[in-house]
Design goal:
Elements: H1 2-14, E1 16-20, E2 23-26, H2 27-34, H3 42-55, H4 58-61, E3 63-65, H5 68-75, H6 80-96, E4 104-111, E5 114-121, E6 126-130, H7 139-159, E7 170-172
Amino acid sequence: CIVLTFIFYLYVSSMTAIIYRKVRCSYLSLGQSLMPGGHVNNFLISVFCRKLFDDCHPSVSKKHYFFSYIGENILKYHNKDQFKLIQNTFKGASLAKKIDACELLFFPICHCKHWFLFVVDLQNCQFVFMDSLFLKKSRYQVVVSEMLVGNFKHLWKEIVDSEYSFDNFRIVYPAMPRQGNG
């Protein structure tokens, strides 16, 4: 009986709970993301990004919403495979609206089991970090912001526009509701 229950659990947990325009989220990922004390899964975030793309198409909204693995690869960028992935993503995104003609680029990122949102605000010349747990001066954000901003600037110059200047960009941490549960 225990073996059958386990097999049934494996079968159901691998089944697709959400499929939205070729982006899938399994029952297991959905359940783990929404249960009390759970951790939001990147597959669920990808479904939301795809939905935002459709509801707020970049050609109208001038916004791009990238899957979390793109932001995570920008953060940890150090090899040619990651470069190719990011290059292909930026070029693909530019088919909907050239990314250098957008006002906002959204990168949800999970780093060390913690989610935050990195926003490149091209219109207002800002790198925005939205984080409900770690403050600007925390060790986490000091390291993350330095790596992410540096890697993003480098990749932008290599892939998008070698002449673009980020000299006037500020790093911003807007006031956020704080989470107290770690």
